[in-house]
């Protein structure tokens, strides 16, 4: 009898626990990163001048790498870089492999289903680049042509909106796409203009095709529903902008001042 009674009490208690216990507030990544003393950031290794491997040092380098370093400095932690491809950026955040993604990621509403975005830190657009020998000067001439793009990026789908007759050929990395263009396996490639400009500067046998036909605001990716972490990233970024360190980094990689402002934001 006593055993039954004890069992009953246990049963009643178990049933009550979910009602009386208050779920502990989920720990923010801000606390975890500070405890760890290090922030893990996913950046591109194939996207100069945003993120690439510096041949002399063997280390990640570029605009987004410098920006991430400054953010880590603001937060008072070290920084470790992990390679992010266009197609792995969101899974890296969702699976908790990285704390932050700073990897040429356009802020799209559809991407908000899985992650959250910081304030926009750069704005660019898209257009193709070709070899001069193709004679292509306008997207209309890409009908029936093979055009390289990377998986997980929006450049292929965006081209199809302006030229549905293009044949999109997908690669993993931008370095492979560029190689395919040089080896005449594709007739053009398409990506963000920051990379297009860099490619054109590096190789005079390439030619930029036409005008920008999209607007690509870059946001940093953070995990969903961790506003303390997202606020910390936004505030660090705004501090870097306010103190003009942003402008120094921009000048270092683009040789000019940014042509955009971050006009209104809370102080
Ligand atoms: N900003 C583009 C995106 O987020 C990248 C385009 C590309 O990887 O070519 O999809």
Which features would summarize this protein structure in a list?
about 270 residues; alpha/beta; D-Maltodextrin-Binding Protein, domain 2; 2 domains; 3-stranded parallel beta sheet; 9 helices; globular; binds glutamic acid
The biggest sheet amounts to: 5 strands, mixed
Q: Note the beta-strand portion.
A: 15-25%
Count of distinct strands? 13
Number of domains: 2
How many angstroms separate the termini?
A: 67 Å
Shape: globular
**Helix proportion:** 25-40%
| Rg calc | 23 Å
**Uncertain stretches:** 1-19
Summed over residues and divided by their number, the pLDDT gives a mean of 92
Describe this structure in words.
The protein starts with a helix and ends in a 13-residue tail after the last helix. The longest helix is centred in the first third of the chain and has 19 residues, at 2-20. It has a 5-stranded mixed sheet, sandwiched between helices. It has 9 helices and 13 strands. It folds into 2 domains: 29-124 and 216-254, D-Maltodextrin-Binding Protein, domain 2 (3-Layer(aba) Sandwich), CATH 3.40.190.10; 126-208, D-Maltodextrin-Binding Protein, domain 2. With 267 residues, it is α/β, with parallel strands linked by helices. It has helices at 2-20, 29-36, 63-75, 89-94, 155-162, 174-182, 193-202, 227-242, 245-254, and strands spanning 38-43, 46-47, 51-53, 60-61, 78-83, 100-101, 115-124, 126-131, 146-150, 167-171, 188-192, 206-208, 216-223. A hairpin with a 3-residue loop joins strand 2 (46-47) and strand 3. 37% of the residues lie in helices and 24% in strands. Helix 3 (63-75) packs across helix 8 and helix 3 packs antiparallel against helix 9. Bound molecules: glutamic acid.
């Amino acid at each position: 009898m006593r055993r039954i009674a004890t069992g009953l009490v246990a049963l009643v208690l178990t049933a009550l626990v979910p009602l009386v216990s208050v779920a502990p507030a989920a720990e923010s990544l801000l606390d975890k990163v500070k405890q760890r003393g290090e922030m893990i950031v996913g950046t591109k290794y194939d996207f100069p001048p945003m993120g690439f491997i510096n041949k002399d040092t063997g280390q990640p380098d570029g605009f987004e790498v410098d920006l991430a370093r400054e953010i880590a400095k603001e937060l008072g932690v070290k920084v470790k870089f992990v390679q992010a491809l266009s197609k792995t950026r969101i899974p890296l955040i969702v699976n908790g492999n990285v704390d932050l993604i700073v990897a040429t990621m356009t802020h799209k509403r559809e991407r908000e289903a899985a992650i959250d975005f910081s304030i926009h830190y750069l704005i660019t657009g898209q257009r193709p680049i070709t070899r001069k020998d193709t004679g292509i000067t306008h997207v209309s001439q890409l009908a029936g042509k093979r055009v390289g793009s990377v998986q997980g990026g929006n450049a292929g789908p965006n081209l199809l909106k302006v030229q549905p007759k293009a044949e999109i050929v997908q690669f993993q990395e931008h370095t492979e796409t560029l190689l395919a263009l040089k080896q005449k396996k594709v007739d053009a490639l398409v990506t963000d203009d920051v990379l297009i400009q860099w490619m054109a500067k590096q190789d005079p046998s390439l030619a930029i095709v036409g005008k920008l036909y999209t607007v690509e605001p870059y946001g940093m990716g953070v995990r969903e529903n961790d506003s303390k972490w997202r606020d910390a990233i936004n505030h660090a970024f705004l501090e870097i902008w306010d103190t003009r360190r942003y402008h120094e980094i921009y000048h270092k990689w683009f040789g000019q001042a940014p042509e955009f402002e971050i006009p209104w934001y809370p102080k």
